[in-house]
C-alpha cells in the first residue's frame, strides 16, 4: 500500500510506516532531515476534567482532499521534499496516537517551519470531529464541522 496524506482507520498505519514511505521518495538524497509531529490523546479536558477516551470521526472524502492539498502546498515551500499527513479515526484511549505529520526537508529550519504550518492548517481546515468521554460519564463533541459549503 502506498501511503499518502489522508484519513486512515486506527490500527491501519503507524509512524514507522510513514517514515518507511517517505524514505522511498525519489529526491530523498536531497534531504538533510525528517521531522515529525505525533498528536496523542490528552487526558485532561480544558476545565481540568479527566478524559478517559475520545472518538474521532471525519468527512473522509473532504478530509482526504484537504490533507492532500495542504501537503502539496507545503511541498512547494523552499527546501521541502515530501510531506505526509495521516489522521486516524476511531476510538482512542489517553496517550494513543491519532495524527502524524512527517516532513522531509533539506534543512531543519525549513522543515520546522513547514511542520508548524501543516499542523496549524489541518487543525483549521480539515473536517474532523472529536467526542470526549470524561471519567464522570459525561461526553460531548468538542469540534465543529469545518466543511466548506
H/E element order: EHEEHEEHEE
From the 3D coordinates, which CATH architecture would you assign? Alpha-Beta Complex
Quote the CATH topology. Aldehyde Oxidoreductase, domain 3
Number of helices: 3
CATH class term = Alpha Beta
Distance between the termini: 32 Å
β content, as a range? Answer: 35-45%
Structural class by secondary-structure content? alpha+beta
Q: Main sheet?
A: 7 strands, mixed
Q: What is the helical fraction, as a range of percent?
A: 25-40%
Mean pLDDT: 93
Which spans of ≥5 residues are poorly predicted at pLDDT below 50?
A: 145-149
CATH superfamily: Molybdopterin biosynthesis MoaE subunit
Please tally the β strands and state the result: 7
Q: What coarse outline follows from CA principal-axis ratios?
A: elongated
Counting structural domains, the number is 1
Radius of gyration: 16 Å
Account of the protein in words:
The chain has 149 residues and is α+β, with helices and mostly antiparallel strands. The chain has a single domain, classed as Aldehyde Oxidoreductase, domain 3. The chain has 3 helices and 7 strands, in the order βαββαββαββ. Strands 1, 2, 3, 4, 5, 6 and 7 form a 7-stranded mixed beta sheet that branches. β6 and β7 form a beta hairpin. The protein starts with 5 loop residues before the first strand and ends in an 8-residue tail after the last strand.
